TrEMBL record, chain A:
A biological process term (GO) from this entry: respiratory electron transport chain
Pfam families tied to this protein: Ni_hydr_CYTB
Keyword Membrane on entry: yes
Taxonomy of the source species: Bacteria, Pseudomonadati, Pseudomonadota, Gammaproteobacteria, SAR86 cluster
GO molecular function: electron transfer activity; heme binding
Protein name per its UniProtKB record: Cytochrome b561 bacterial/Ni-hydrogenase domain-containing protein
Superkingdom assignment: Bacteria
Segments forming domain Cytochrome b561 bacterial/Ni-hydrogenase: 22-269
GO terms under cellular component: plasma membrane
Membrane-topology annotation of the record: Multi-pass membrane protein
TrEMBL record, chain B:
A family per Pfam: Oxidored_molyb
Source species taxonomy: Bacteria, Pseudomonadati, Pseudomonadota, Gammaproteobacteria, SAR86 cluster
Provenance organism: SAR86 cluster bacterium
Protein name as annotated: Molybdopterin-binding protein
Highest taxon listed in the record's lineage: Bacteria
Residue stretches making up the Oxidoreductase molybdopterin-binding domain: 91-231
Amino acid sequence: MENQTIHQETDPGSAVSSSYQRHPLATRLLHWTSAIAIFTLLWTGFWIFNIHPRLYWGDVGNFDTPALAELTADTSTSIPEIFIKVGDYSLEVTGLIGQVRRMPFIRVAAYPEGFKFGGNRALHFTAAWAFVFGWLLFVYHLISSGRLRDNWLPKTGEMSPRNIGRDILNHLKLRRAHGDAAKHYNILQKLAYLIVMFAVLPLMLLTGLTMSNSVTTAWPFLFDLFGGRQSARTLHFIFAFLVLLFILIHVLQLFVAGFINHLRGMITGVFHIKVEKKS
Amino acid sequence: MNKLLNRRQILRGILLSTAIGGTVLASRRYIGPVRDIYDLTDSLNYNLHNFLLSNQPLVREFDKADVSVNFPTSGTVLPKDDDYQRFLGNDFADWSLSIDGLVENSLSLSLADLKNMKAQTQTTLHTCDEGWSAIGEWTGVPLASLLTLAGLKPGAKYIVFHCMDTFGSNQQRYYESIDLFSANHPQTILAYGLNGESLPVKNGAPLRLRVETQIGYKHAKYVGRVEVVDSLQNIGSGRGGWWEDYDHAPWYAGL
């Protein structure tokens, strides 16, 4: 059904334009509800990070213990200088990011007037529930509709170094897929979707749960799995950064592959393809 | 062929919405009516966690060698209230904890009374909603044994902790509450000792709550009165705690 051409016309020029139903309704609904949930999680998560921008490893982490990475200030000068410190490296970011409030509390950004930290946390958990339901439905949909097998999993030969190498080159040259190739996900796209869906997002949830006192009471092995409560927190922010990176590339790729066409494909499902006329 | 949904998809949709609807309905076994999306989330967390903890497992204990010597603080570090200052000046010799509300016998217990009761010591990880954590060795009296001593009346559902520190921009005394399930957890104690010494003032002297299955702001410091109630409606603005009432913080804070 997906590859069925619902409309075809001969262009007066040299190409045949055809359109087809690219994404079924379930994919589109789940894509956008997940997008809203994940955006909310990233947004509220940023404000949670902001209140204590220090990352640790192990179980314990506070102002008396050394941080793996931190936003910190040198107050020995008249105007405090702000640094990002990672191990022995430090990068001065005075004026770029970092805001000096109550010493030694340094925050990445100022909280808006009337900001409620507790409400922000509550919203993070609300979005987390929406995300979990959405993720479960999405995985169920991918499997039951056969899209996981047909569209996501690499086909025979796709994982060959030659094919992957060619695809990397296509990406670097920002080359747009045409004709039949535009109908299928390319190998890097497939791998990105698979890694985000089945590795990064589940790890986000698990590291998040490892920060919960009651969940670790029921499942103390989570501490061992991630190396402690603070390690889980650090990993949670690293994975969140990977999700953000994925979204940025995902959106940038729209411009390469055709912004309106792909956006419409994910809203109404209709996707246009130009097929080169055989002479 | 271009129908948006076929019969199988509709059937699936019905099944899934039943599952989600059922979860939401099950969540109503909660502190009160679900008024907004915050309450909905709070109740989902509460129900899931109560299910996970149904057999009351113990929280992990840590090595005593790993305690944080200078235990970090949040909130009040020195109550300026006159009565507190008076108690502090006398090293809490004339301070007493009152336990009242829906109990058979209201109690008034001095610090010496509490220290004469069967003590419990536990080395646990404290986590703050801001993100930091620290290990402390806490000594105190299990809350469950105090509640047994007072004897709960029928209808008792929540334990409210009234604190001696005036807190926050609205200058109200701090208060917090937990349900009987958390109150009866074997590691829920009212602590008077930290790392083998008297509880420091900055950490809540003379007495603070340790409810190890939940996070920092539930662990009320400077506790002066424990009240047993059947509803949280008349406590503060009705959400069960200072942060809950004025900062929209979740009442159930197992996460």
